[in-house]
Amino acid sequence: MVLIGLLRVLSMLLLFPAELCGLISAQVISVTGTEGQGITVRCHFSFSGNRMFFCKENCNPGNVLIETSEEKAQKGKFSIEYEGTVHSPVLFVTIKPLTKSDAGRYKCGMSRFFGNSEQEVELIVKAGEFYSIIINIYQKWTCTAYFYLLFLLSLLTMCTIFFFLSLITVQTQQESQL
């Protein structure tokens, strides 16, 4: 009986070593948020670690947005929180407020003595209602201002032409009287 159990564990270690260590994740988490609001991403892992992190694109030193060994941390618009058990850890990463430039690929992860476990996240940011209204007003005002400017320039040009025509007419009348 013990031998069968050991054989099962050995076969799992040989067939699925990366999954048991939590070194690879099954899928990319896709989340959609609205500009100006906040979003929370939930990352699940196989085993807990001693350090949590959240990175933009890859986890090179310059791309780490927030990292901690504590259960909670906040840095600027990013916060990270650990929940769950040793065998079922969950990281909650919150970004608020969202901007269009926040859209892209991220990685949330846990660091352990035998390597990092990372979950890839794809963040899509939609334009918020407030921002859409501002953009529409800007576009309308820009077009309206442009047409008013064209109208004023046309009016100024016509006034200038009439002024010179009247000067020419007056001068011609004066010359004809002499």
Automatic annotation (TrEMBL):
In which domain of life is the source organism classified?
Answer: Eukaryota
Residue limits of the Immunoglobulin domain? 28-126
> Known SUPFAM superfamilies for this protein?
Immunoglobulin
Q: What is its main location?
A: membrane
Could you list the residue ranges that cross the membrane? Answer: 145-170
Keywords attached to this Swiss-Prot or TrEMBL record, sorted alphabetically, are: Membrane, Signal, Transmembrane, Transmembrane helix
Where in or outside the cell?
Membrane
Q: Does the keyword Transmembrane apply?
A: yes
Please provide, alphabetically and separated by semicolons, the GO molecular function terms listed in this UniProt record.
Answer: transmembrane signaling receptor activity
Q: Name one GO cellular component term.
A: plasma membrane
UniProt cross-references to InterPro entries, sorted A to Z: CD300_family_receptors (IPR050671), Ig-like_dom_sf (IPR036179), Ig-like_fold (IPR013783), Ig_sub (IPR003599), Ig_V-set (IPR013106)
Signal sequence span is 1-26
What is the name listed in the Swiss-Prot or TrEMBL entry for this protein? Immunoglobulin domain-containing protein
